[in-house]
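ugh ok fine here u go
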Amino acid sequence: MSTAPATREASRPARTEGRIAWPAGLAWALWLLNMVALAVVPWMDRLLRQAGRPDLVQLTPGTAFPVVAMVSGATVGAVLASRRPRHPVGWLLLAVALSLTATAAAAQYLTWGLLVRPGALPAARSVSLYFSVIGLTALTCIGLLLLLTPTGSPPSPRWRWLARVMVATPVVLVAVATLAGGPLDPRYEATGGPFDLRGHGGVLLVANQVALAVTTLAVVVAAGSLVGRFRRARGVERLQLRWVALAALLVVMAGVVVLAGLAIGAASASTLLSLAVGLSLAILPVATGAAVLRYRLYDLDRILSRTLAYGLLTLLLGAGYAAVALVLGQLAGRDSSLAVAGATLAVAALFQPARRRIQQAVDRRFNRRRHDAARVIEGFGARLRDEVDLDTLTSEVLAVATQTMQPTRASLWLRPPAGPAAR
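structure:
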């Protein structure tokens, strides 16, 4: 009689482990599929160069950094989907990475099958018919990602209509493309990208234009819902959204860099702009993953203050090193090793004092809570050396814990003194 509950209890973890194992396997299988599809692109580029069409290759120094962003999104998505299989954000990150990779692979397929070796690849014209749908799917997944981050559900039930519209749009476009077909110009379909609609005509052109306009507007509205969610969020959800807001700020800064580079027309602007955009887009999935997994949510102020402090410290020490080396170089001669040795020793001597002062200044301005907590604890330590009254100490401990940790409830338990029997 007593063994039955134990048997049932022992078999329950095995079934739970099986339920967790297959989503993790599926997530990493999709990640592997994404990596394989990415590997197809440089292989096709090599074939295009061998065929005498280097103008059609996709991987260039300017496009290498967005590939890093796709790898970042796929990896973070696989981690989220394997650890939180019921949370849709991980699967959406995987879907975004897969659809972007599929867009690049389909472009290579169309380039080879329509321009370089016409008729050499099967169903190249059929792929071109649905090429815009692949790009639209990536845009739809991005919109859903904005709508469902970080909780996995819309900000309120009234936002569900937006999710339905975004999901229905590519489905309707597939149906229209299948039924209507339409004339397609292979030159634009192979080289213009999924949203270059100059090769379309008739009903197919109108359907693609409407679908692209609706999806773009839905993505903008979804981004607005994320802003509204941040303004209304409290507690853990607000901490989660702070990570996403930091990554979004980096993306905006990258956009400003792009516009500035285009405005000044720098010679190496394309590579530098691609680097800025690629790195910012690679950080966005990482911040989303940290928000969903609730990893080190309370450390954002610390990370920002440390980043700012060490950045200022690097600039200060670099400028000091250059100034000391220049002065000593003028005094001892440019070929003397005394200038380098003196500058190195000066920087080593200034490192710790400069780091402390810069960190304190940054904490006072950008990490006020940590600075105030440190001052409260320091003052408590000074009072503790002179205080002997137990009731006063109890009040002091509770006050310090409330000010520094900000708990919802605080209490102090004191062990009673040992009685005569214990002695």
